[in-house]
Design goal:
about 160 residues; Glutaredoxin
């Protein structure tokens, strides 16, 4: 399966949130940009920094109409504890079966001793579900640039 590229429709999905609720992408579209932020593992340094950056900028992201979702292959139970610990104001989605990470082209088949782990990546979708920004790194130690994310979300809001 080829990775999702800018200009393409984002594959729809339904995943379980940290609250145990089903979240369907198709139900989240329409109001403004959607930020999908993949990370490797709950409770690790770079991932914590990535998700806390979104938390710290959440007011601005909301001001621009964005919905924010963190995504990894960890369980929704792990996500719940991680979200509570860091007071994240947005849902964390569990791609436990790895289908969504694979569909977006952001899955490490092997990562050290692990199989099927999400790559650190960010997709920003417009209100119609078209990918307008994509950032993927092969180096799990490199976080996304939060300033660039804010710029892209703001650009979509004013487009």
């Amino acid at each position: 399966m080829s990775p999702v590229e800018v200009g393409q429709r984002a594959p729809d999905f339904t995943m379980t949130s940290d609250e145990g609720k089903k979240v369907a992408l198709s139900q989240e579209l329409g109001a403004g940009p959607v930020l999908l932020s993949w990370y490797v593992f709950d409770f690790t340094n770079v991932c914590t920094g990535q998700l806390c950056s979104h938390r710290d900028d959440f007011g601005a992201l909301q001001q621009f109409g964005a919905k924010v979702f963190g995504i990894s292959t960890d369980s929704h139970h792990s996500h719940k504890a991680f979200r509570q610990l860091h007071k994240l104001p947005y849902p964390l989605l569990s791609d436990w079966n790895k289908r969504v990470s694979r569909a977006y082209g952001v899955l490490y088949e092997t990562f050290g001793d692990y199989e099927g782990v999400s790559k650190r990546s960010v997709f920003i979708l417009d209100r119609g579900g078209i990918v307008r920004f994509k950032w993927v790194t092969e180096d799990p130690k490199v976080p996304p640039a939060e300033g660039r994310i804010l710029e892209e979300v703001k650009r979509l809001r004013t487009a």
